[in-house]
Amino acid sequence: MIIQICVGSSCYLKGSAEIVKLLEEKVSNGYSDKITLAGSFCLGKCNRIGVTVKVGDEIYTGITPTNFENFWVDKIEKKFT
Questions:
Q1: Mind listing the pLDDT tens digit for each residue in 16-35?
Q2: Is 73 helix (H, G, I), strand (E, B) or coil?
Q3: How far, CA to CA in Å, does 14 sit from each of 1, 33, 81?
Q4: Could you write out the three-class secondary structure of 2-61?
Q5: pLDDT value for 48
Q6: Are strands 2-6 and 36-40 parallel, antiparallel or unpaired?
Q7: Which residues make Cβ contacts (< 8 Å) with residue 45, sequence separation at least 6?
Q8: How many domains does the chain have?
Q9: Helix, strand, or coil here: 74?
Q10: For residues 7 and 19, is the Cβ–Cβ distance under 8 A?
Q11: Which phi and psi angles does 37 have, rounded to 5°?
Q12: What is the CATH number of the domain that holds 30?
């Protein structure tokens, strides 16, 4: 599975570097053979709050450090259980 994190100027200002760090931590804990992380410039779904992340063919907006854990469990981890 490929996960793309928007690192365009808008998402960068909204904390994409922190979301990348959180994803790297999760992937390194048993998912490195299943998930590839990639940076992406604008995914075309800018949101006023948080970062845009593409998981496979699905785009999610508004990802923040606060809601990251729920995003990980509901949108990524569930695909492997």
A1: 999 999 999 999 999 999 99
A2: helix
A3: 25, 29, 31
A4: EEEEECCHHHHHCCHHHHHHHHHHHHHCCCCCCCEEEEECCCCCCCCCCEEEEECCEEEE
A5: 85
A6: parallel
A7: 52, 59, 61
A8: 1
A9: helix
A10: no
A11: -95, 140
A12: 3.40.30.10
Q: Which single residue is written with the structure tokens 């490929």?
A: 2
The mean pLDDT of the chain is 95
Token pair 């923040």 is found at: 64
Q: What is the C-alpha separation between 73 and 7, in angstroms, rounded?
A: 22
Distances (CA, A) of 9 to 12, 22, 28, 44: 5, 19, 26, 12
| Segments forming the whole domain that contains residue 43 | 2-80
71's tokens: 């995003």
Sign of CA dihedral 37, 38, 40, 43: negative
Query: For residue 62, what pLDDT is reported?
Result: 96
